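Hi F.,

I've been meaning to write this up properly since the lab meeting, where we talked about keeping a consistent format for the predictions we share between groups. The idea is simple: the sequence comes first, exactly as it goes in, then the structure tokens exactly as they come out, then a line or two of notes. No screenshots and no reformatting. I'm using this chain as the first example so we have something concrete to point to.
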Amino acid sequence: MVGPESGAPYTVPWSRCDVPGLVRLDIEPHSTPSARKIARAVEVLHDGKVVAYPTDTVYALGCAIESRRGTERIYRAKRMDEHKKLALICPDLSSASMYAHFSRTAFRVARRVFPGPYTLVLPATREVPRLLIDHSHRRRQVGIRVPDHPIALALARALGRPLLTSSAIPPGEERALADPEDVELHFGRHVDLVIHGGPTPGEPSTVLEIIDDEVAILRAGLGPTEGILDT
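Output, unedited:
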């Protein structure tokens, strides 16, 4: 098929997959992803649906922060325990500060590691939906990510609010998926759109909990920890 004016090959920005209702969206992981294709994915998110997309660590399942239906579908897809909470993907520190309280230490660490393969567990603000708070703990906390990946950041910016996110780990397995074809195979019937943005490193983010001036490593992952505790 060719374009009517240039004669160049014409490709649609998205296509239907073998799974009924599932849309596949091919986006090259360049520094500036196609705005038209990002808008197509954001349209799905605005509808309260679930999108699988690449990050700087692994593929993830995500929905808009206010989508209770999307949140429930992510939990069902992964067969997650209700006490395991989703994190928030924010485009920058400014937006992240609306949902988490940053102490001086937390701000210094965030400036050092974001954007990058880290999750910071911080005190949650009132903007965080109750369904994201683990009430079995005394503290209201939330996981914050600002990934170093153009597609994930473009989604969060265009959406205008954070993405609820969870690594694409199939039920009964320990490792998250790093390839979009595997995401379709395991989660194609549980999501509405899969962004094919190339392979990811396949290692989880490093998780740091920061309470006041204390920094603790909850999980070692792709992000190095050398020097972080010396803030």
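Notes:
The chain has one domain: 14-230.
The longest helix spans residues 35-46.

If this format works for you, I'll send the rest the same way.

G.
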